[in-house]
Amino acid sequence: MTTPAEVVEKAPEEEEPAGSSIAFTATLVLLVGLALFGRKIFAGAFTDDGVRTWATMFVGVTVQAMPFLVLGVFLSAALTAFVPASFFAKALPKHPALAVPVASVSGVVLPGCECASVPVSAALMNRGVTPAAAIAFLLSAPAINPVVLASTAVAFPGQPKVVIARAVTSLGVSMILGWLWLLTGKGSDWLKMPKNRHPEGTGKLEVFRSSMLHDFLHAGGFLVVGAAAAATLNVVVPRQWLDHVASNLLVSVIVLGLLAVLLAICSEADAFVAARPEPVLVDRAARVHGGRPDRGREADRVAGRDVRAEVRRQVRAGHLRGGGLVQSSRRMVAAVRRNVAGLVVVFVGAAVAQLATTGTYLRYVKPGMRWMLLAAGAILIVLAVVDVLADTRKKDDADHAVRGDDGHGHHGLPRAAWLLLIPVFALLVVDPPALGADAAQRQSPVSSKPAAPKGNSWLADSAQGDTPVPLAVRDYAVWAVWEKESMKGRNFQLTGFVTPGKNGTWYVSRIGLTCCVADGTAFMVEARGQVAPPKNQWVTVTGEWAEPTKRADGDIAALTITGVRTVTPPANQYE
Fold first, then answer.
1. Has residue 500 got a pLDDT over 50?
2. Residue 402 has pLDDT above 50, yes or no
3. Which of 111, 139, 212, 542 has the fewest CB atoms within 10 Å, i.e. the most exposed one?
4. What domains are defined for the chain?
5. Nearest Cα to 140, choosing from 92, 105, 96?
6. What is the 3-state secondary structure (H, E, C) of 290-311?
């Protein structure tokens, strides 16, 4: 008769799924290979100006949105783990009609996008909250929470009315739709409640970790899709088409509304889209992962583990209990091998942190983003490391079943999450530069009317002289057209890159950013009297104010050049 100990000793060891090991190994080899040899292998493949401009805008949108995405999933995971859904149910009035506006206003406490509001709204309905109130919360939370309102304020600097209008309109729409749902007399029969990804008894820290990883992998993949759409619209669609859309209120409302429906724009980043018609940042609410397409379990039962978890430890042989150094190290290796999700997250986090520490981020976003990027990168790296460590503690069948269902793919990565490797590939192989002449050529050199005229009145009081006055290109491009009287007869010094024009003309140019390169605006000054240096060459020019060039669509600032010298591009090439 075989003893229990003998049964355990004869049982085969736990084996990791072959597919996950192959995926991990292939991903690791690919990323390390690209880091070491990518630029040599693909040398000459990404030299086209248009391709590099697209890559810069693609990476820029991704980098700009990453801190907001990380903050959103961090806070939403914290609320999922530490704030029970019953709290919201108790806070709502019993009468459904009164519960709707209270639920709408309650959306302000849930930072994050639809990835957070969808599961929370489902949990509210599962706890007995009227569907109309849960739907009102679902619609308001992604639009009025602090993260979204803060991103709106960043996208529209100095325009608090936009933030207020968004909050008020979103609240109104969510209430109206909630009441309409009530009036239809339809209940939860129309809605299929998703299953809870965390079974009863799961620790709060485990819920927090897995929720954050799940939401980041799903939302991050669709963020990359949105960044690609934004870059494509900027590079492929002619700027005059976009200007025409922006100039017509009715057309712009219809077009942007259709884009929002078709592309499912993320609430954490849609303000940056609305700030200009051309960039489009996309995301989509994460689906609750329920298993394989055939509805089968994702975690298969491990061979040899047919003894119940409660008695397994008691029937093991003494030398097998607790494990040793070799067993622990083998478990760690096994956990790392199957954790493709952790590998993707750690590479994304490392890329973000590297951009911030080296100053490369200045090619894509404004200097004020540095600390936000450092924090986002550090959080992602810690999340990936903690996820690997958590795998080493998961040994029983129930734990493996839960982790197979949690949606972030220890035994298989969500397909959308693989898209997060595309910006990593772009950074390792293409090395997108700061925007230059190609981006400027896609815009008009016509000077825009300043919002606040007389901005250079100090020039009228300064002494006239031969010493050139150093000015930013964006300032000269505006003032030379709209403040002629104070500019006449003066010499100026400008620093920028060379942008070739038509019929032998050339411009001294700089790009100005509001948030990131996707909203970059070119400021160009026509250079007269000198032969054009090479395209994209950085120069410092001196010269005298010249009468602006007249065009049907406006005037172009001009400078009669008396001296040109080449210079090294500054660390921050934007104004």
1. yes
2. no
3. 542
4. 13-288+326-433 (no CATH), 438-566 (2.40.50.140)
5. 105
6. CCCCCCCCCCCCCCCCCCCHHH
Q: How many CB atoms lie within 10 A of CB 514?
A: 16
Count of CB atoms situated within 10 Å of the CB of 571: 10
Each residue's pLDDT tens digit, 69-82? 887 778 767 777 78
432 vs 428: CA distance, rounded Å: 9
What does the block give as tokens for 427?
A: 């950074």
Question: Could you tell me what percentage of the chain is helix, strand and coil, using 3-state DSSP and rounding each to the nearest 5?
Answer: 60, 10, 30
Contact 480, 548 (CB under 8 A): yes
Smallest Cα–Cα separation from 61: which of 275, 227, 237? 227
Q: What confidence score (pLDDT) does residue 436 get?
A: 94
Residue type, 398: A
Quick check: 338 pLDDT over 60?
no
The rounded distance, in Å, linking the Cα atoms of 5 and 11 is 10
Contact 170, 270 (CB under 8 A): no
At position 332, the amino acid (one-letter code) is: M
∠ Cα 290 390 24 (to 5°): 70
Q: What single-letter amino acid sits at 452?
A: A
CA distance 527 to 98: 66
Q: In this model, does residue 128 exceed pLDDT 80?
A: no
**What is d(CA 508, CA 495) in angstroms, rounded to the nearest whole number?**
7
Q: Which two tokens stand for residue 436?
A: 């230059």
Question: For position 86, what pLDDT does the model report?
Answer: 67
Q: Residue 384: what are its φ and ψ, rounded to 5°?
A: -65, -40
Is the predicted pLDDT of residue 534 greater than 80, yes or no?
A: yes
325-338 vs 370-392: helix crossing angle, rounded to 10: 130
Q: Which two tokens stand for residue 36?
A: 């070491």
Task: Give the count of beta carbons closer than 10 Å to the beta carbon of residue 560.
Answer: 15
The yes-or-no verdict on residue 322 having pLDDT over 60 is no
| Amino acid occupying residue 270 | D
Per DSSP, the three-state class of 241 is: helix
| Residues 177, 140, 369: CA angle, nearest 5 degrees | 150
Chain center to CA of 213: 15
The candidate with the shortest Cα–Cα distance to 384, out of 218, 219, 209, 224, is 209
Report pLDDT digits (tens) over 276-285: 443 333 333 3
Instruction: Determine if the pTM surpasses 0.70.
Output: yes
> Rounded distance, CA 351 to CA 363, Å?
14
Q: Rounded to an integer, what is the distance from CA 567 to the centroid of its chain?
A: 34
Which pLDDT band, with edges at 50, 70 and 90, does 109 fall under? confident
Range in 70-79, 135-144, 442-451 with the lowest mean pLDDT:
70-79
Dihedral of CA atoms 177, 180, 184, 186 in degrees, nearest 10, equals: 40
Handedness of CA 359, 364, 366, 368 (dihedral sign): negative
